Amino acid sequence: METFRPPVAINFSCSNLADTWNRWTQKLKNYLIASEKDKKPDGVKIAILLNLLGDEGTDIFNTFKSENRKSIEKFDDVLEMFTNYCIPRRNVVFERFKFFSCSQQEGQQVDNYLTELKTLASTCDFGDQEEGLIRDRVVLGIRDMSLQERLLRESDLTLKKAAEFLRASEASKHQIESVKSASKVHEIQKNRDKNSKGTASYTKNSASDTVFNCQKCGKEHKKLKCPAYGKICSKCKRKNHFAAVCKTVKKNYRSVNNLENDNSSNSGMNLFIDSVTEQVNNDMLIVNSLDSMWLKKIDVENNMIEFKLDTGAEINVLPLSVHKMLDLKEGFWQVPLDKDSAELCTFNSPFGRYKFNRLPFGICSAPEVFQKKNQKLFGDIKGVEIYFDDLIIAGKNKEEHDKILVEVLERAKENNIKFNPNKFQFRIEEVKYMGLLVSKDGIKADPSHVKAINEIEKSTSKNDIKRLLGMVNFLSKFIPNVSAVTSPLRVLLKKDIEFQWNHEQETSFEEIKRLISSTPVLKVFNDSLPITIQCDSSKDGLGAYLLQEGHPVSFASRSLTDCEKNYAQIEKELLAIVFSFEKYHNLVLLIESDHQPLTSIVQKPIGSQMYLADTLSRAGMKETGGDDPEMLNVVHSVSKLLPMSESRFKQFQKAT
């Protein structure tokens, strides 16, 4: 007959007797069933129980026997007596406190955490809600916050789903850690110092970490076996490292995961960007750049000050009568790439890897590089202006125009630059350039833009308002007081304002169309003519007009802030003058204003012409005037007769 191992005698003096007794009784019942002794009479089973409990259990049973003789004949009654002895009356509140305070410990597996929660829940009398409460505690008690967030997204989460999800997540983490530990990573450090010879140091990480790349000697060896220990560096005279790895001179390093460098380590090529360097006396470095042509040193009271020249002197091609437009064929592709840049522009395709030998479209810096190349090639030719692939040529007459054109074509031939013949505009009096029409009379808006705004329909949303204002802002230089006109439309863009198209918006919309339809021709600025600025203010905005000989040169405007709208009208008028000064700060100008009180204030006589007042202000008496007796009586009456509290009186006293 097969024998089964009975449970070991229980220790009744253990700290957690209740849990120990529950587990022991479970083992006892399994033993009785397995050995088929559960069918024995109660007397036999009581004897087996006492035999397994030992002397301490027998002594406790004798106390039961002396207290109640009728209950010692049945096995279940004896077992219940021991249960009552080992498990005192439970405090349900405290048991639930332990349950709701249970959280997953660091390193604790999901299954162990679930078992612990179920064990605690068995003594909490949750009833039908036990499974739901265990699920809630699992979600709120796990350590991984990302897993907690994903579980909270589930609307129909059950305890079974939560347990399966957590087990799968735990298994995947173990698998990822195994993959990471099996892989080897080689770190390459590339020295970017200009004097380096292209060498790179490789760090090998072995599984046992017994050999490593030492930074003191530059070699690989085991720990505590460095040959540089105790040696003196011949470069910095310090200990414990060699001169080959001395860090006295700061170097720049960059860590990358992979590097393929087919350049020769002995290459002495030094690259530079848009500068020519010249060594002088080994201590001074002279840099000649494009910015030098814009600067000029002028003697001001025996001090040489560097001034920037007129920024429009070299690029202004107006007002001229004959124009020509040229367009570079295929744009960026006319710029060749060097070997290194071409390799950086390698792309993959189903037919293999290819690289661009010409500057490709889509590179972030391509437009700036292209503009800079064209500026270097054609920027020094008078009468030529470049905007990316468009060249505008302007001359006072046909002869000057043709002379400039020949010079441009010769320069293009020397540098193998090709133009698009389909976009040639030859000897035209008016040219469309950057969305504007340029002629000898000045600058005016493109009729296609005016037509687009005139045909636009009434706005039905805030996005439509933004689209309309964007088009209007492009033509704002031709529209006087555009900020004041568009103010009712801009109100609708505020977050706390509901979109409602009312009479004010309709009036503003129609006024914009009218002003754009009648946009004036802006005269080209002439620095030899006097400048006049007319400025004005309204309840919503400020406006300024730059005039020369009565013809408009430029319009400027801006809206008022909520604070500025509360200004008095005279303050708004002065604010318009300040705005004009800020807008045209680099010009010497004359301000015209229609506000007479402000004119009287601003145009007061200077102090040297106010003889008496100027003399008295500079040679005043040293005596100070006393208080007016009548005013003292008034103050006394107010302080005594006005009904106010003591604290309020102190406030007035402190303020006055």
UniProtKB/TrEMBL annotation:
Biased amino acid composition, Basic and acidic residues: 184-196
A Pfam match: RT_RNaseH_2
Gene3D superfamilies to which the protein is assigned, alphabetical: 3.30.70.270, HIV Type 1 Reverse Transcriptase, subunit A, domain 1
Domain Reverse transcriptase: 326-436
Location of region: Disordered: 177-202
A single GO BP: DNA biosynthetic process
InterPro entries assigned: DNA/RNA_pol_sf, Retrovirus_Pol_polyprotein, Rev_trsase/Diguanyl_cyclase, RT_dom, RT_RNaseH_2
GO MF term set: catalytic activity
Stretches assigned to the Reverse transcriptase/retrotransposon-derived protein RNase H-like domain: 501-589
Name under which the protein is recorded: Retrovirus-related Pol polyprotein from transposon 17.6
